[in-house]
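Quick start: what a row looks like.
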Amino acid sequence: MSDTATPAVEGWFTTGPEPALIGTKCRSCGTISFPRETTFCKNPACSGEEYDDVELSRFGKVWSYTDAQYKPPAPYIANTDPYVPFALAAVELPEGLVVLGQVADGFGVADLKVGNPVELVIETLYTDETGDRSIWRWKPSAAAENGAQA
């Protein structure tokens, strides 16, 4: 990723050496949401409407996975022509959320197993006239299994 990388989805994650997804925590009941909540609490028993931003754990465990054998519809932008299938992982974070994301470059469904540790990384999704556009991805990780996970 170049130094000119800009998040493809503004406000959903931080960049740098220890990137993190940005969620929100309801001030009334403590429910954590991702992506960030701005209107009403996801907890049906709560009527909270005020939230604090929280950085979510960088490490989680594979909850489920699949591959995208067919090109997704717009606004998806393929970074190869012809289209190359990629893996997706639903990752359970220690906060109790399951977050879906692409799997890091160089990894596919053969590298994934339910329960295996992964870590959040930032990679280039595509490049346009202003530079690289980055996104979060899940990378299989022995580091998470060896104590880096909360």
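That is the whole record. Residues 85 and 148 are 30 Å apart (CA to CA). The longest strand covers residues 117-128.
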